[in-house]
Amino acid sequence: MSKQFTKQFKQRLYDFTLRLIKSLEGLDKDFISRRLGDQLLRSGTSILANYVEGQSASSKKDLINFLIIALKSSNESKLWLSLLKDTQRIDKALANDFQNELMEFSKIFAKSILTLKKQVNDGKNLKSKI
């Protein structure tokens, strides 16, 4: 990823996280809404946290691990959003917007992981030929 893309993507994740937090504050205070909201808050904020932590990773393998966790958190967030939406606890259009954004995040993480894994493997193959 270029430095420009990395900076813009980090800001996009940050903005997503802020919007998510603000939206979750508006959930009803009943037991189910709170539990589902808590789960979504954990997984949703984990995306940004793992991406940021990965930016100071000590190796490509370490970065891959952080991106895998961010990808898993993105996928988990889609589940909690679906449950909130399908139980009519969150606005359907808002949930769809969040889910679309999460789909894009997941694709970016998956592509980045594949690219980095290829670079790591190519590096191993190069070393074995030397």
CATH architecture: Up-down Bundle
* Name of the level-1 CATH class: Mainly Alpha
The assigned structural class equals mainly alpha
Helix content: over 70%
Give the total of domains.
1
CATH homologous superfamily identity: 23S rRNA-intervening sequence
Low-confidence stretches: none
What would you report as the Rg, rounded to the nearest angstrom? 17 Å
For the terminal residues, how far apart are their CA atoms?
A: 28 Å
Oligomer: single chain
- CATH topology category name: de novo design (two linked rop proteins)
Description:
With 130 residues, the chain is an all-alpha fold. The protein has a single domain, classed as 23S rRNA-intervening sequence (de novo design (two linked rop proteins), Up-down Bundle), CATH 1.20.1440.60. Helix content is 86%, strand content 0%. The protein is built from four helices and no strands. Helix 2 runs antiparallel to helix 3. The model has no long low-confidence stretch (mean pLDDT 94).
Identify the notable features of this structure and list them briefly.
single chain, de novo design (two linked rop proteins), 4 helices, mainly alpha, 86% helix, elongated, 130 residues
Helix-strand layout with pairing:
Layout: H1 3-25, H2 31-54, H3 60-86, H4 92-129
Helix pairs in contact: 1-2, 2-3, 3-4
Short overview:
By secondary structure, this protein is mainly α. 86% of the residues lie in helices and 0% in strands.
